[in-house]
Amino acid sequence: MLLALPNSAHDFMKLSWAQIEPFFQTLADAPLHEDTKYEWIAAWSRLSELYAESYKRLYIATTVDTTDADAEKRLYDFLDNIQPNAMKAENELQKKLVESGVEVEDFEVPLRHIRTDIALFRAENLPIFIELDKLSNEYDKIIAAQTVMWEGKEHTLTELGAVLEEPDREKRKHAWTLMVDRTLQDREQLNELWQKLLERRIQVAKNAGFDSYRDYTWQRMGRFDYTPEDCTTFQNAIEEVVVPAAQKIVKRRLAKMGADTFRPCDQYADPLGRPALKAFSEVQDLESKTSSIFHHIDPVLGDYFDAMRADGLLDLDNRKGKAPGGYCESYDAIRKPFIFMNAIGIHEDVQTMLHEGGHAFHVYESAPLPYFQQMGAPMEFCEVASTAMEFLGGPYLTEFYDTLTVSRVRTDFLEGALMFWAYMAVVDAFQHWVYANSDDAMNPANCDAKWQELERCFRPFYDWSGYEEAEATGWHRKLHIFQIPFYYVEYGLAQLGAVQVWRNALSNQAQAVADYRRAACSFRFFISQRNKLTELVRIIRNKPSVAFIWFDFFPLYVPYSHVFVKKRKFFFFAPHLRHTMIQELTFLMCLRTDGNRYSNANLNTKNIMRCSADFRIFSNVTM
User: Fold this and answer.
1) Predicted TM-score of the model (pTM)
2) Cα 77 off chain centre by
3) What digits encode the pLDDT tens for the residues 488-517?
């Protein structure tokens, strides 16, 4: 079955719905049985990827320049005139496939998602989805317009963030105060936007027959293998295990700083007062040095990144009017990735580049899959692909720094990796509260109070005195809450998985990278056991499934301690890093390996806290 489709998404984007509809109708009318199934699926796949890439290109154009009125108009025209019609037509094709009863090889997981989409589909939600997309775009515009004057020049808040790494504490405090004061100027506007978003999300869930938006979105996001209760368990584990470890990190930093309290402006500064790092001056430098890192990790990955540079698939520099954050998006019709970020020359940009590069490699590795519908990997695994690359790139940061500085940045990275779990718990717990208490959450003042409560629970080491309003409105500064509801626990789970990829690399980097690449091109990722996400598997070329990464929500990877650090040789790939301050990270891995003290049979809070006492033997490990 050959559809007379345009050759590219650039051409597809120009079509009206009257020109697109016949493609869907042809598929709806075409016979679908054993003799035609592969031809039918292939035609549907090509139509779907042209449509998906068209939408993504239109959306990306509004993020690279939030002030581009023409780009916004093109996106909104697509949302208003094409998307709702295409979603209806897509629903009919999904039902046609399911009702046909045909079986397509390696289509089990896509079919599971298709059945879920059918069950959730409600025509009355289509206009609400469009409203939500437009409101999400409003958040980008509000944040992108936030600038301040600093030393006589206008700066974006992202750009001014580099000052937070300066050794001068008063200078940091002044810059940080300017930044939060500027965000507070938009407090009412963001509160109004929040109420509109929440109201529409609640209605979407009701229309689909769900009591809460949480229950609805759990299905929509394909979280078949773990539950909201598992997330609560994860949060509790973080509170019991991670928070005390993070407090030790902060206590040590304060001792080095000679300070009594840890202020938010101290988070990124070097505790020894060393000058702020300048990782690069121009984004071209970031690109070339990151390319070298990727080539060191694996020549094929390096070639992927070089191809992106040659094809203009990178937009890395920060500028006024650019949407906040960073992302990697896939151009589905050409099976290539696009990376967006806001680089300002700090080391965090290097980590972001490695992270988004991991997403990009996932796109390249999965490109050979025959059908678009197979490309939708679970987001928990997508974030493993990206976060693992941050760890795998560690040995090669000498492309940017001397060996002593690499020791410094790797220490900061590992401590930050641990402390991230605490922040992840704040974001995830906040969203669970919001959608379990939607009437209360409709009042932004209640959201402020809840966020502040969670901050003090999971990050009690910060001193916000005098800046309580900035503390309470921290949820305003997390775009996922506004734009991608419930998307955040994935990062916490992925970091657990990424640490294990790193563990594998410590023993055999070539094999670990080979496993990483095989997993990235798999189209079946999860085995469900006990209604939990417990095993990420790779299934390649009909080989038996081989455990690649294991997930458990509590107590944070104790089962892997005996593999990870048998001989206390942390970072043996870089001997000068063996004695860096990574006690807290190794604490999470529960280093004690004598007997079965921390075996699966003994995983309980009492033994974990006993491990905390054992951890004292590492308390004197310093740089």
Assistant:
1) 0.85
2) 29
3) 999 988 888 788 788 788 888 888 888 888
